[in-house]
Amino acid sequence: MTRSALVLFLVSVIFWPPNAGAGDGSYSLTPQKIDDGVYVLWGRQEPTTRENGGNIVNTGFIVGTNSVLVVDTGPTQQYADQMISAIRTITKLPVHTAVVTHHHPDHSFGIQHFKKNNAAIYMHRNLKTLFANEGPILLELLESLIGKTWVSGTKIGEPNHLIETEQTIDIGDRIVKILPLINGHTPGDLLVYDQKTQILFAGDLVFHERAASVPHANISVWLNHLDTIRELGWRKLVPGHGPMVTDQTPIEELKAYLTFLEKIATESIQRGDTLAEVLQTTIPTPFDKLATIQSEFQRSITSLFRKLESEAFGN
What we know:
- This protein is an alpha/beta fold.
- It is built from ten helices and twelve strands.
- Strands 1-2-3-4-5-6-7 form a seven-stranded mixed β-sheet.
C-alpha cells in the first residue's frame, strides 16, 4: 500500500458515517432528460452507505445518431449493469464510449462492465498508476462501507484510452469534446462538453450544495480550473455531485469553500495546532448547510493538514 493510499484509507474509515442498514442491490436508476439527447442519473446528496450502495454520483449519457457516450461508470459492476439497462429504456444504440472523469471509486468502478460491453474507456493518462495502485485498496474499503451484496462482481477495470490532450468524438451528427485538466481535484480530470446543447459534465471539479472531497487535490490549481470552467460557454453544467448548475453562483460558492478549507489548514500549521485542535473548528455559514459537511470537513481537513504538515516538516 502506498503512503497516499494508506492515508486516504485511514481518513475514510475514521470519518465516514456509520452504516445503518443494507440495500437490496437495486439502484433504481431513472434517466432524466435535461436537453435534447442528454440524460443524467442523479446521485443522492448523502454519504456512501449500505442502504444506497454508493449511489452518490451523477452519471449521464449523450445520444447521437449512431452511438451513445457515457459519462462516468458508477461505483460498482451492478451500477454499471443497471445503468446500461436504464440507457436501453431510452435508446437501443450501442454504447461505444465511456468517459471516466477521474479515478475515484464512485465514478470509475463500473469500468470493467462497460469494457465487457465493448465500450472504449477514456481516462486521463496521469491517473494510470494511481488508479492501479489504489484501486484494489479502495475496492476493499468500498466493500466495508456498502457490503458484499453491492460490490459482487466488481473488479478494477483498466481504461483502454489514456489521454492527456483534448479529444473530439463524433457519436453521429453530434460532436462531444473531452477536455483534460491536471492537478486540480485529482492529477487528471476530464470535462465532457456536448457542442449541440452546450452542456458540460464537470465531474468532481464541481460540487454543488455538497461539501467537496479533496484527498488528491491541489486547491490552488483547482481554483484556477474553476475560472477556466466559468469561461467555457456552457448553458447547463452537470456537477459530479449535486443538482444542475445554470449560472455562475455555484462556481463562486465552491471557490469560497475550497479557499476556506485551505485557509483553515494552512493557518493551523502556522500556529502549531494539533490535528485534534483544528478538527474542532466551527464550520461557518453558509458552509455548515452543505450536504455531508460534518464527515467531509473532517476528511478534508485531515488530508490537507497531513499534507501541509509533511511539506512543512519534511515527514
